[in-house]
Design goal:
- The complex is a heterodimer of chains A (359) and B (559).
- With 359 residues, chain A is mostly helical.
- Chain A contains ten helices and two strands.
- A two-stranded antiparallel sheet of chain A has the order 1-2.
- In chain A, helix 3 crosses helix 4, helix 4 runs antiparallel to helix 5 and helix 9 runs antiparallel to helix 10.
- Chain B is an alpha+beta fold and 559 residues long.
- In chain B, strands 4, 6, 10, 11, 12, 19 and 20 form a seven-stranded antiparallel β-sheet that branches.
- The two termini of chain B are 18 Å apart.
- Classes of the chains: A mainly alpha (359), B alpha+beta (559).
- At the A-B interface, strand 1, strand 2, helix 8, helix 9 and helix 10 of A face helix 3, strand 1, strand 8, strand 11 and helix 9 of B.
- The structure holds protoporphyrin IX containing FE.
- Protoporphyrin IX containing FE sits at the interface of chains B and A.
Amino acid sequence: MILAATTNEGLAQMSNTLVYSSMAVYTLAFLAHIAEWVFGSRSKVGRTAAALTEQAATPAVTVKVKQAGGGTAVLDKPKIVTRSTAGTRDVPDGPGAAGGTVKGDLYGRIAVSLTVLAFAIEAAGVIARAVSVQRAPWGNMYEFSTTFSTVAVGVYLAFLVAGKNVRWIGLPLVTTVLLDLGVATTMLYTESDQLVPALDSYWLWIHVSTAIFCGAVLYLGAVATLLYLFRDSYENKLAGGGKPGAFARSVLERLPAAATLDKFAYRVNAAIFPLWTFTIIAGAIWAGDAWGRYWGWDAKEVWSFITWVGYAAYLHARATAGWKGRKAAYIALIAFGCFLFNYYGVNIFVSSKHSYAGV
Amino acid sequence: MSKTDTTETGRTADEAAGAQLSTAPQEDTAIGGPTLGVVGWIRWFWRQLTSMRVALILLFMLSLGAVPGSLIPQTSADELKVQAFKNAHETLTPLYEKLQFFDVYSSVWFSAIYILLFVSLIGCIVPRSWQFVGQLRSRPPGAPRRLDRLPAYTTWRTEAEPEQVREAALAVLKGRRFRAHTAGNAVAAEKGYLREVGNLAFHVALIVMLVAFAWGQLFKSEGGKLIVEGDGFSNTLTQYDDFKSGSQFGVDELEPFSFTLNSFNGTYEKNGPQRGTPRTFEAAVSYSQGGADKKAVIKVNEPLKVGDSKVYLIAHGYAPVVTVKDGRGKTVFHGAVPLLPIDNNITSTGAIKVMDGYRDKNGKKEQLGFQAFFVPTFAGAGKGTMFSQFPALDFPVMALTGFHGDLRVNSGLPQNVYQLDSSKMKQFAVTGGTGKANRLLPGETMTLPDGAGSITFEKDIKEWASFQISQQPGNGLALTGAIAAIAGLTGSLFIQRRRVWVRAARGEDGVTVVEMAGLGRSESAKLPEELAELAVMLTAQAPQAPEPAEAAAEEGAEK
Ligand code: HEM
């Protein structure tokens, strides 16, 4: 990091323009997603899927085998029959927001394309900001927030590229990205500038980048968990012979099955937990260098710890009889709430050694 | 891992196969205590304490218990803030004190939670480790009766003999590093034991980290020292401004070394909206451990390491040099007076105390005191504010209010060096200035009224820096624990422990029927894929027979 470097006004200006432009494109993506949901609601396909079919979808797994020549051949045999484990309902996933309609699907694709565009613009904005100050763009809350939403969208798109069924996250994600950017540009905006000496350390790169990444991925997990809770009560109602309301029938039946959402949330949360552990440890090492103690129960440290213990409790709950399912989901949501509080609450309301981040 | 099965046989078979796929303790679902007297109760209590459910509740309580400490000021972090809080909340304070809310993290109740959690953890790890060793010694459990009920399943018919198929399956599975053996008409195999190793390692590492932390708390020492440019410090107890240590720390364990602050250099943003934000803080020091002096620069994130001690740069401020003379022109005080900053632009306040050697114009012994108010960058006369506009020394001005009388330094109470107790003093009449204090520029002298002497604000303004010198053993151990925890956790969460069974038996028509099934700890898309790969490898030696009786195979897959 070159501290003496003067901020490049032009680049900083450009960064702001890019962030505003990405907001405009995200807004278009938001509208396209809405259109996708609206057109999808008129479909009949979704309606028929509403019946809880006990008959399990038995996806066959085909195996690709590398051949000597380097090509691959698909063996259609042996056919592997998969079943869900006990306690989970064998409910097929909903048809997705588009509900199987051509028009809905078209708008869905437009929404994803627009999201890709907005992501590219926003990422360019973050990079321009970093170049303008010649340091990691994580010196204050404005910079955290813009990087945070960029990473969240990036991870979502990476899931899409990997062929995962995650388009259902699109609307909630784009909505919150708009909120996040709105708050960042109006309430948290900080002029592009150099770092205060306390933040000038290579640990900034390590600790803050992993923290932002963890937050972004945990956010996707939290969205899935929340949707799981809705979808689960919807399925419970159907299974009990009840009649869910019109909204539930229209929206919830198009979501993936509760078991699928739950599994997605678990995988995401479990995969990020070691990284979150690392983030806290890296922070402790940095604190050891900066303040002479690696752990001092500073407000920020306390809330990272609470978040960590919360997610540990969630993982335990998943392995404890009687705590799987909804109870574990509530714990996961509380844990993510702690993460959010650590970011907004502690930075803004609680005085902490970490409060020089410049709100 | 049991299924919602209706057939009793199917259930028990599945349970046997899925059992011990982890070492998680079985839940004690019995409600109410035992009727076995004291020993029975103790055993019951121990079983409860080491159950997953209680571990979960304790984890929950730990995070809940950590909350108040982040919202209420803590003695360990900031005593002054605690005092301010106590003054402001008279009704809450006694309650908070009783609940130890000002020392949450060393309170009885917080300690109780984490000690219980760690007892539970140890009580959990030990039997789990034994159980795991037992699992490693024994062989993977035999195949359940109905393989088609497992999460991943496949079947085909082959011309090969059942023994041949089993042998081939054993070879294939061992080739993929499964632990495998033949039991009856099926091959049983298991893989992914590192998951359990990782999980146990993680939980042990948590204990290591706790021990390291406790060790550090007991043996640590930590002291603060404010040093003006040009002055030095040697690491003995008497030289510290304040000093804290763990209960097991011995004073003779202080690392012998000394250092001198040669200069402090701070730079600040000159322009833009963040004008005044610090850009660099550097303390140039020379230090020695008895031998020759070595030079070093201490920065905010870069402490100086001397042996087991670390010297951290904590804060800085200005120390104007003043000279006080009595009525006869004799110098009674000359030196740099460190002042404490009260805002980000280093507006500073402090006290200048002349304790000995001063006599008034009648030759009577007296003490002098001055309240000093210093700004490194003055707004300019008539600008209405005496607060600093910028942290650097651009336009330094000091306002002084003089007193004479008794400083009360010997009153028995410890006195704050930055505050003047003027209760036994009389203020000198002020000539000019604002009427309350005299404003001086560097080099200017204020003459005290009635031939009481003078005070000069010298041109040379020094800076001071405050340092924290700490010694904390156990850091290496904590770091080792932390690394082991992450490694173990990664293994625990990313490695799948799974079982595969291959059954080969002669069907009714005399053709061999191969059945393969897989079971994992948690459902994973990888398991069916792996099973398919294994099946493909096996079909190389047990190729599919033509399908004369498709119906028979389908019957087998029906539920
Ligand atoms: C200091 C507090 C503790 C923390 C932070 C903690 C954390 C964790 C984590 C992160 C996992 C990984 C979850 C997974 O593999 O899915 C785990 C698993 C596990 N923990 Fe703990 N744990 C703690 C205390 C305990 C205690 C007291 C017990 C004993 C009752 C226990 C028993 C287990 C078991 C059996 C598993 C394995 C579950 C499985 O196989 O999925 N833990 N723990």
